[in-house]
Amino acid sequence: MTAAYRHLRVRPEAHGFGAAVTGLRLAEPLAPPVLDEVRRAWTDHSVLCFPDQPLSHAQLEAFTAQIGPFGHDPYATPLEGHPHILEVRREPGETSRRFGATWHSDWSFLETPPAATLLHAKVTPPVGGDTLFADTYRAYESLSPVMRRLLDGLRAIHSPRRSHGSKGDFAKDQGQRAMDLVIGDQAEEARAQPLVRLHPVSRRRALYISPIYTIGIEGMAEEESQPLLDFLFARMLEDRFIYRHRWHPHMLTMWDNRCTIHYADGGYDGHRRVMHRTTVAGEVPMGVQ
Ligand code: SIN
Question: Beta partners for 252?
Fold first, then answer.
C-alpha cells in the first residue's frame, strides 16, 4: 500500500498500470517534495502522463534534467542546437516505416540503456498515433514459478541490427522520411543483458526483452531460444498487460524502460505527428542472480 500524494493528483489508469498526473506545472522547476512525489508516482505506475503542459525546448530539457542526467541516444540525429532532444516527426505524405513501430525498450542494447524516456506532444493527428505500453513486471509475475526460475538465470542478446543495420528494416525502406536515422554496420553491435531485470527502485522483477532488439539467448541454439522468446513475447503482449495511450497536444509522457516496452501505433496516414523526446540515463541492467 503506497502513501497518499500530498502535492499531486495521481489518477491510475484502469488497465493495471500507468497514471495521469495533474496539479503541477512542469514548465517551472519543481520543489523537492513535488519532485519526490513525481518519482514515487513513476515507480508506482511505470508510465506517467501529464496533460496540458506546454513546454519550450529549454523547459523540456530542464524538466528532464530534474529527473536525472540525460541519456545517450544513438541511431537518430537530434534537433539542431538541442543535442538531447529528438524530434519524432512524421509528415502527411510519408509511407516509410514509423519510428518506434516495433515493440521495444529504448536502446536496450546499450551498456547503460536509458531509465526514462520523455515524449512531449507538439502536433497530434486527429486519428490514431497512440503509443502502446506493455507491463513487463506483470508479464513476468504471471509465469509459473518453474518458468520464472529458469528465466532468472538467463541472459538475452540485444542488438539494433534488425532495425538500424545495413540489412535491417530501415535500410530496406525506400520511402521518404522526415527523421534522420543512423543506419549502417555499426548497428551490428550486440550485448547480453539479464533476461529478467531487477528494478533498482521498486525491487520488482520484469522481463527485459523485446521482439526487435532481442536476437537470442546466451548459450542457447536459435532453435531453442526463439520458441522460448516467442512464447514470452506473446505473453508480454496479451491484452491484460497493455495500456493504449492516447495523445493530446502539450501532453508529456514519461515511461520507465526497465519494466515496460512500447510501440508507436499508426492509423494516421495523411496527417502530421510531431513529438519531442528526451531520455534519462540509466544504470547497467541488474539481474536477479
Ligand atoms: C518511441 O519509440 O520512442 C516513439 C514512440 C511514439 O512515437 O509513440
Answer: 50, 120
Q: Which long-range contacts (CB under 8 A, 24 or more apart) does 170-175 make?
A: 170/97, 173/96, 173/97, 174/96, 175/94, 175/95, 175/96, 175/97
Distance of CA 185 to the CA centre of its chain: 24
Other residues' Cβ atoms within 10 Å of the Cβ of residue 170: 21
Spacing, Cα 8 to ligand 1 middle (Å): 26
Q: Which of 89, 104, 138, 177 is catalytic?
A: 104
Full set of structural domains in the chain with CATH = 9-280 (3.60.130.10)
Ligand 1 neighbourhood includes 120 CB (under 6 angstroms): no
Question: What's the pLDDT tens digit per position in 104-162?
Answer: 999 999 999 999 999 999 999 999 999 999 999 999 999 999 999 999 999 999 999 99
pTM of the predicted model as reported, rounded to 2 decimal places: 0.96
Dist CA 5 CA 204 (whole Å): 22
From the CA of 264, how far away is ligand 1's center (Å)? 5
**Please, which residues bridge with residue 11 across strands?**
20
Are the C-beta atoms of residues 102 and 233 closer than 8 Å to each other?
Answer: no
Tell me the pLDDT of the chain averaged across its residues. Answer: 96
Spatial neighbors of 209 by CB under 8 A, at least 6 apart, are 156, 158, 195, 229, 232, 233, 236
The alpha-helical segments, DSSP class H, found in the chain are: 32-45, 57-67, 136-141, 145-152, 161-164, 169-172, 222-236
